[in-house]
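fold-stage: in
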Amino acid sequence: MMPSHDTPPGVTRADHTGFTVSSLDESLAFWVDVLGFRLVTRDRYPASEFLDNVVGVPGAELELAMVEAPGGHLIELLEYSAPANREYFKPRACDVGSVHLAFLVDDLDALLARVAGAGWMALGEPQTVRGGSRDGLRLFYARGPDGVTVEFLQPPRQADGRAAGWKNSMNER
């Protein structure tokens, strides 16, 4: 949809979420094998003026993989091979700059067993919202070896035992 002449240009929709990782192979094992996302592409980008300007890092070289979550959201995984002075950050959820990505799931307990088996660390115990429009929502944070934090949210169970088909975690209709 093109903006009208009286509307300033702005965001039209989300495209992808990117994470820098230490091992693309290990990350793909998690995102594809554990979570079941689809591998869309995997490409190598050598050092270039173009890449330097895109990422703001002189001498950057990287390999990139794009995976697609159920529902279509893309996750971009980036493994940099240069420059040599890369740093590791593993902020806690309360640290400024910490980010997380959240997914609705249909069976939190089964997924958490697979996540733990892949070496991701639980950041607490699954919790259930009591009261309000999100009553019965179960949620859980897990952190991977690179510090990436993912939140998993299971809508309340229906009479047939399946998770309710919520549009999002705010239970918007």
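fold-stage: in (second)
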Amino acid sequence: MGTPPRMAVRYGAAALLWALALSGCTASAPRTPPTQPSPTPDSPAQICTSLVSYWAKETLKGSKWAGLDWEQKGLSNEQYAIHEDAVAAGRAEERTAGLNKALELVDRVVAQRCAAQNGATWSSENWRPPSEADHSPQ
């Protein structure tokens, strides 16, 4: 058998294009869904609450990463102070009411403190500018 006659190829191509047009397929760019409004960014207090609460609860649960220091956890000095207070309150609650109640208490304590301190983001307390002695060759 040889190649199909030209007319058959044209009819086949026309039928294919017609079928594509009927099915909604076109060679144009794909349709994009309508855009959703961007979510409102979290406030400093919300970020603080999420971060500090997470690490305080991990500490109470004794997780693998609970032993990281405050810098490795991404906490500011103020957030670390909130963390330590929340862990202390959580440990006291755990002794009397159990771990689940302690974790709930941590969420409440952290949310209150982070809101009161507007995110507790001041973190330069321990930072000191390099001194001349740090730059001198030895």
